[in-house]
């Protein structure tokens, strides 16, 4: 084999190595950068639901303070929130003692949210309160896993509020 043939084979082998290194580098980038990008995209989409459900909780508390009743629909809250967006469906469920506010994901890769506003005796929140009365306390919960299922409702028992099973409390 001549020196030119050896040099050509050597250059071809190096180009092949370069291609392999490039392919390996792209694979590594996809393994690191792509999940990071997708995670940030999901967080951005989830921030809508966090904002909406948090606002719904606050509006329920304000409505009760003003009217002594909870609002029975998203529209009645007067926030201008759509009941459905590209990524979430928003709804309200009211009982005599509680208002539950939902942001349920329409996309399997996004987490859902639920807020609860509970009527409680003032003495449970402020032991030194001058008189007996009723006030509200709230909690804001996020599903532990992504999915399109309505999350479990928070609970209030013996003076304590907790997120439902499969959810955890978050701060906005």
What would the keywords be for this entry?
172 residues; five-stranded antiparallel sheet; alpha+beta; single chain
Helix content: 40-55%
- Please tell me the overall pLDDT: 84
**Rg estimate, integer Å:** 27 Å
The end-to-end distance, rounded to whole angstroms, is 72 Å
Number of domains: 1
DSSP summary: helix tally:
2
What order do the helices and strands follow?
Answer: HEEEHEEEE
- Which class do the helix and strand fractions yield? alpha+beta
Order of neighbouring strands in the sheet with most strands: 1-2-3-4-7
Q: In words, what does this structure look like?
A:
- The protein has 172 residues and is of the alpha+beta class.
- The protein has one domain.
- It is built from two helices and seven strands, in the order αβββαββββ.
- It has helices at residues 3-67, 122-125; strands spanning 88-94, 98-105, 113-121, 134-143, 155-157, 160-162, 167-169.
- Strands 1-2-3-4-7 form a five-stranded antiparallel β-sheet. Strands 5-6 form a two-stranded antiparallel ribbon.
- Strand 5 (155-157) and strand 6 form a beta hairpin.
């Amino acid at each position: 084999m001549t020196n030119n043939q050896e040099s050509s084979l050597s250059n071809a082998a190096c180009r092949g190595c370069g291609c392999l290194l490039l392919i390996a580098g792209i694979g590594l980038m996809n393994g690191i950068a792509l999940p990071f990008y997708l995670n940030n995209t999901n967080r951005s989409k989830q921030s809508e639901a966090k904002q909406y459900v948090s606002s719904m909780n606050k509006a329920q508390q304000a409505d009760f303070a003003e009217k002594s009743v909870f609002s029975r629909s998203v529209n009645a809250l007067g926030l201008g929130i759509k009941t459905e967006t590209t990524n979430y469906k928003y709804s309200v469920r009211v009982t005599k003692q509680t208002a539950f506010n939902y942001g349920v994901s329409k996309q399997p890769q996004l987490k859902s949210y639920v807020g609860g506003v509970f009527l409680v005796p003032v003495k449970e929140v402020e032991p030194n309160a001058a008189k007996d009365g009723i006030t509200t306390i709230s909690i804001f919960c996020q599903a532990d896993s992504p999915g399109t299922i309505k999350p479990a409702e928070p609970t209030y028992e013996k003076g304590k509020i907790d997120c439902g099973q499969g959810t955890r409390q978050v701060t906005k």
